[in-house]
Amino acid sequence: MMGRKHQLLIDTIQRLLRREAYTNIKRILVKTHPADVAVLLTHFDDDRRRFLFDQLEDVDSRSEAVAEMNHQLAAEFLGEMDVGEVVRLLLNMESDDAADIIGSLPDELSKEVLSRFDKTDSDEVGDLLRYREDTAGGIMNPDFIALLETTTAQEAIEVIRQNREVDMAFYLYVVNEHEQLVGVLSLRKLVLVSPDTILKDIMEPNVVSVRTETDQEEVSRLVARYDLLAIPVTDGNNILVGIVTVDDVIDVIKEEATEDMLKMAGAGDVLVNTDSVSGSAKARFPWLLVGFLGELVGVALITPFLGQLQTHHLLALFMPIIMAMGGNVGTQSATIIVRGLATGHVNREMVFPLFWREFRVALVLGLTYGTLIGGVSFYLSDYSIHYALAVSISMTLAMLIAVTVGTLLPIILERLRIDPAVSTGPFVTSAVDVLGLLTYFLVSGALLNTL
Amino acid sequence: MMGRKHQLLIDTIQRLLRREAYTNIKRILVKTHPADVAVLLTHFDDDRRRFLFDQLEDVDSRSEAVAEMNHQLAAEFLGEMDVGEVVRLLLNMESDDAADIIGSLPDELSKEVLSRFDKTDSDEVGDLLRYREDTAGGIMNPDFIALLETTTAQEAIEVIRQNREVDMAFYLYVVNEHEQLVGVLSLRKLVLVSPDTILKDIMEPNVVSVRTETDQEEVSRLVARYDLLAIPVTDGNNILVGIVTVDDVIDVIKEEATEDMLKMAGAGDVLVNTDSVSGSAKARFPWLLVGFLGELVGVALITPFLGQLQTHHLLALFMPIIMAMGGNVGTQSATIIVRGLATGHVNREMVFPLFWREFRVALVLGLTYGTLIGGVSFYLSDYSIHYALAVSISMTLAMLIAVTVGTLLPIILERLRIDPAVSTGPFVTSAVDVLGLLTYFLVSGALLNTL
Predict the structure, then answer these.
(1) Interface test with A, best of B17, B208, B270, B331 (most A CBs within 10 A)
(2) Over the stretch A302-313, which tens digit does the pLDDT of each residue have?
(3) Domains and CATH numbers, chain B
(4) Does ipTM exceed 0.85?
C-alpha cells in the first residue's frame, strides 16, 4: 500500500501539471528524495513520466531516480531513450544498480550500451553481469574500502576521507598482500583507538563472509541471523571482490517472500511482469495443468460411481462443499509448513510432532464441520439418517486426509530438494479433491447401499 | 530451511551428547555465535535444551542465546525456570528484547518478574510494554546516543567512547535543550570534520522519523525506501525516545510476509503457535466458516438443478474440475494483486489496466482448458456435441469469473480499509465455486434442454 505522503505528492504534481505550473513542479522535485521521485515516475503514464523526468535538474538526480525504480521498470523506461542518454545515466549509477538494469534491457540495447561504456566501468559492470542475478555476486557492490593489516588507524581514517563516494562505510575490511580477506573492523572501533594502532591488532579475524556463487537467500539469512550491516563477498581464492549491504538484503527478503507467495499459487515467480499476455499465460499454464490433470484423475475415479449418483442424486449436492472444506483446511496446513520451512521455524525433527498436532486440530475442525453438514444433509434428505451419516463422516475424513496431504507433501518435497513452495497450490488442492471425493463415494456407497 | 552449518553443529552436539563428552560440548559452545546457540537450543527437546543451556559458561552468553531465540519460544523456555534466574537473564538483555519476552510470559510470571526488576530497568522495560507490540514504540530500542546541537565533534567522539554498550551507533541524533529531535549525523561525517566543529553545522536537519504509535509496517517501509540503518522514534512532543534499527526491521518484514501468507490461507496470523490444539482450531475456525457458509449458499443454489443432474447424470462428473480450475486461476490473480498491493507494485490507478490484463490472460487460459475439457467430455459422453459444448463453455466462463473475482475482491477490500490478504483464501474460493457451478448449470441447462 502506498503511504499518504506519496498520495499527497502525486495529487500535488497532478494539480500542478493541469495548471501547467512547471516552475513549481521543478521546485518540488529538487526537494524530493530520489526514492520518492522514483515512486512518482512509476505512477504516471509514459508521456508524463518522460515530461517529469526532463524536469529533474541534472544527470545526478536523474540517474538516482532511475536507480531507485524497480529495475525492470527502469529498463523499460530507458528502452525508450537514445543510447547516448542511457549510457550517461548508467555511468552515473552504482555499478550494481547499473548491472541489474542492463541485465533487464532488450538484448540489442544492452550490447550497444556495454560497448559504449568506457573500459574501466564497462569492466566492473561486465564483471557483475557475469554472476547469476540471484547470487551474492549478482547483488554485491564492487565498491568497498579494503585496507592492509599493517595500516594504522590514522591512515585508515585518511583513506575514508579520500573515498567519500563509497557508500555505507561502517565496516572496513582488512586484507593481506594477496587481497585476501583476513578481518573486519567497525568504523566505531577505529575512532576509539589511538591513531598509531595497526589494524591487525584491533580487527576481528572471524569474518562471516560469502562466496560470489552463494545463493542470495543464504546471504540474506546470514545477514539477518548475525544482525550485520554488510557482508563481504570473496571469490574462489578468498580474494575480496565486493560487499552486499543490508539495504540490498531487505530487497532480497521481500523478493523471496513474493516469489514464495506466487509459487504457492502457481502464478510464476516474478511480480512485475513485463511479459505479454501470452507470455503471462504461458507462465501460469503449467501449474494449472498440474491441477487439470489431477482433477482428470478425479473424473476417471468418479466415473464408476455414476450409477450411485443416479440412484442417490442428492449426493451431488454435497460434492462441492466436501471438496472445498478439504481444500481450505489442507491449504492452511500446507501454508504453515511451507512458510515454517522457509523461515526456519520448522525443521526435520519437528515433522512428526507437527503432523500429529495438525492432525488433532483437523480432528476438532472435521468433527465440528462434519456435524454441521450432517445436520444440513439430514434436513435436505427429508430426515434420512443414512444420508446425514454419509455426508458427515465423509467431510470429517476428507478434512483429515487434506491435513495429512497438506502437511506431508511439502516435507517430502523438501527432502527431495524440490522447493516446497510449489506444492501448496495446484498440487495439494487436486490431491485433496480427488482423495476427498473418492472417500465420499466409498463411504456413502457403503452406508446407502445397506438401505 | 536450515543451513548445512546448523545441521553439522546439531549432528556434532548429538554425537557428543551420546558419548557424554561434556567437556567437548562446552568447548564448542564457547566458540559458537549466540544466534547459532539459539538455533541449537530450539532444536532439542526440553530436557536436552535445559542441559545444553546449563553448559553455557556465564550469564552473558545465556541471556544472549535466549534473546536470539524466537521470543515466544524463549518465554516458554523461561517459564520452566525459577523467577530469580529469569530476572537475572532478562536484566542482562537489551530492554527491547526483554520487553518482548516478558510480554509473552504467562501473566503471573511476568508480573512477578517486573516487580523484582530494580527501579530503573523495570521503568525502561515497563515503558516499552506500554506500547502496542506492532508499533514503532513496541519494537524500538530505548538505548541510543543523543547529543545537543552545541556539542563539538571531539566531545561527541568522547561520548561514544563512554557509551560502548550502546549498539549500532553509526548515526548520532542531535536534540535541542528540550530533548526534541532536530538533526542526524553519521559517525563517518563526525570522523572527517575538524575536532572543534559543532554538530549543528554538520548535521542533516531533515530527519526521517516516526512516532511511537506508527505501525511497524510503515516503519519498515520507510527504512527500506530510504536505505536507513536506523530510524529515530519520537513521542507526541517530538522528544526522541528510541530508535528502531535495521536488524529489527528485517524481522518485521519477515513477520509481515508470514502474516500475509497465513492470512491468505485463513490460518491465523502467527506462525509459531504455542496455543493448545483447541486454541489453534479456534483460530482457524472462522475462516473455514466463511468457506462453509459460502459453499452452503452453493448447495442452496444447486438444489433447483437436481432434476437436471438426474436427467443428465454425466454433468456431476465435471463439477469438481470446473470448480478446481476456477479456484486455481482465481487464487493466482488474487495472490498477484494482494502481494502487489503489499509491496507497492500495485496502486489504485493501475486497477483497470491490471484487471484488463488478467482478464485477457484468463481468456487465453480459459479457452485452452475449455477446449481440452471439451475434448474429454465429448469422448466420455459418447460423442455428444451438446455435452462437449456445455462443459467447455462453462469452464471458460468459470475461469473468467474467477479471475474477475480474484482481481477485484482484494482491491475492493483495500478501498474499504480491510486487509486484502484475508480475501484470497476462503473468500475468493467459495465465491468462485458458487458462481462457477451456477454458470455450469445454467449453460448446460440451456444447451441440453434444447435436445
Answers:
(1) B331
(2) 888 888 888 888
(3) 4-136 (1.25.60.10), 146-261 (3.10.580.10), 277-448 (1.10.357.20)
(4) no
